[in-house]
C-alpha cells in the first residue's frame, strides 16, 4: 500500500468514527461505563467471598477427612463382622432345623406365641 491509500483509509476511518459518535449519546456511554464498573466491583466482591469460602471449606475438609476415613474403616469392619455373625447364625439355624424340624415355628404360630407389644407403633 502506498502513502495515499493509507491516508485515504485513515480519513475514512476517522469519518466513520465521527459518524458513530453522533449516533451514540455520551451520557448513555457514561451510564454504560458506570454500570460496567458497578458489575465489575460486585463480581470482584463475589470472587473474594467465594475464595474465602473455598479456603474455609478446604480447612474444614482437612479437619474432618481423617475422622471420616477412620469411621469408614470402622463401619466396613463392623459390616464384615456382622456378615460373619449372620452367616454363622444361618448355618446354626440350618443345623438346628435339620436336627429338630419343629424348633422354629412357622409364621402363623409365631404371631400366636409372640405377645410382646410392638414398640414402634404410636401409643
TrEMBL record:
Source species of the chain: Abeliophyllum distichum
Source domain of life: Eukaryota
Family: Belongs to the KXD1 family.
Protein known as: KxDL domain-containing protein
KxDL domain segment(s): 20-104
Pfam families in UniProt: KxDL
Coiled-coil intervals, chain numbering: none
Amino acid at each position: 500500500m502506498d502513502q495515499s491509500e493509507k491516508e485515504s483509509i485513515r480519513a475514512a476511518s476517522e469519518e466513520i468514527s465521527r459518524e458513530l459518535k453522533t449516533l451514540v449519546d455520551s451520557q448513555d456511554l457514561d451510564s454504560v461505563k458506570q454500570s460496567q464498573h458497578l458489575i465489575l466491583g460486585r463480581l470482584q466482591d463475589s470472587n473474594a467471598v467465594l475464595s474465602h469460602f473455598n479456603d474455609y471449606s478446604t480447612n474444614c475438609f482437612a479437619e474432618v477427612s481423617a475422622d471420616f476415613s477412620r469411621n469408614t474403616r470402622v463401619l466396613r469392619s463392623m459390616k464384615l463382622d456382622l456378615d460373619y455373625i449372620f452367616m454363622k447364625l444361618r448355618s446354626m439355624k440350618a443345623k438346628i432345623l435339620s436336627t429338630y424340624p419343629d424348633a422354629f415355628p412357622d409364621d402363623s404360630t409365631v404371631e400366636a406365641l409372640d405377645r410382646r407389644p410392638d414398640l414402634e407403633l404410636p401409643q
